[in-house]
Amino acid sequence: MSELTVTGANLFYGAAQALRNVSFTAANGRITCILGRNGVGKTSLMRAIVGHHPLASGTIEFAGRTLGRIPSYDRARAGIGFVPQGREIFPLLSVRENLETGYAGLARKDRSIPGHIFELFPILKEMMNRRGGDLSGGQQQQLAIGRALVTRPKLLVLDEPTEGIQPSIIKDIGRAIRFLRDDQGISVLLVEQFLDFCRELADDIHIMDRGEIVHSGAAETLDLPEVRKHLTV
């Protein structure tokens, strides 16, 4: 099982409170989307889940285990894969070397690149010896997702994967996310501002405003006026 449950999460940066009593569940084998305007706490929530910033209070449980102060590398070993906002690939390493950085938390017998990564993103196979920094933004996003998949995640956390990406690659990423849910049984937690992308993909949505979850429901509820008011500038 790969269910993620966040309960009563509060997070601070100095005196500023980024998360206010946030509670939600990303269910096993489903695509869960976190939406909201810029600056409402979405990335702070993702950083807390993957272990980059500790909660002041509240709990995060994954696959029946309370994560507490467990560091990010142990969360990766437990099955949480992370694709950060801005991709953060290694620009001077080759595509192959970037993918192989995902080996760090794997047993020696598992240190290989799963074939489905190249089925999802064929361009990565074609560019294995190219430096990561020479790829386009969309190709770098595919590389970042591929690197996370090398870790064999049970839960894939993606922070704004469509940001600055051309439409054709957005479609490729959408197809990949569906494949991971339907064929690989991977749960997906997706932070987005692109409403159409979430409407097409998400099983469940949660909308944040000022550090709080203000709406939870099915993707179809995005079209309700009382929901859209939290997403318009």
Structure description:
This protein starts with a strand and ends in a 5-residue tail after the last helix. Helices cover 32% and strands 27% of the residues. It has helices at 42-50, 72-78, 95-100, 115-120, 122-126, 137-150, 167-182, 195-201, 225-228, and strands at residues 4-13, 16-26, 31-35, 57-62, 65-66, 80-83, 155-159, 187-192, 204-209, 212-218. The protein is α/β, with parallel strands linked by helices and 233 residues long. A hairpin with a 2-residue loop joins strand 1 (4-13) and strand 2. It has nine helices and ten strands. It has a six-stranded mixed sheet with strand order 6-7-8-3-9-10, sandwiched between helices. It is globular. The chain has a single domain (4-228), classed as 3-Layer(aba) Sandwich (Rossmann fold), CATH 3.40.50. The mean pLDDT is 92.
**Major sheet details:** 6 strands, mixed
Radius of gyration: 17 Å
Principal-axes shape call: globular
By secondary-structure content and strand pairing, the structural class works out as alpha/beta
Report how far apart the termini are. Answer: 38 Å
Per CATH, the superfamily is: P-loop containing nucleotide triphosphate hydrolases
What is the architecture at the second tier of CATH? Answer: 3-Layer(aba) Sandwich
H/E series, N to C?
EEEHEEHEHHHHEHEHEEH
Number of alpha- plus pi-helical segments: 9
Mean pLDDT: 92
Helical percent range? 25-40%
Contiguous low-pLDDT stretches (5 residues minimum) are none
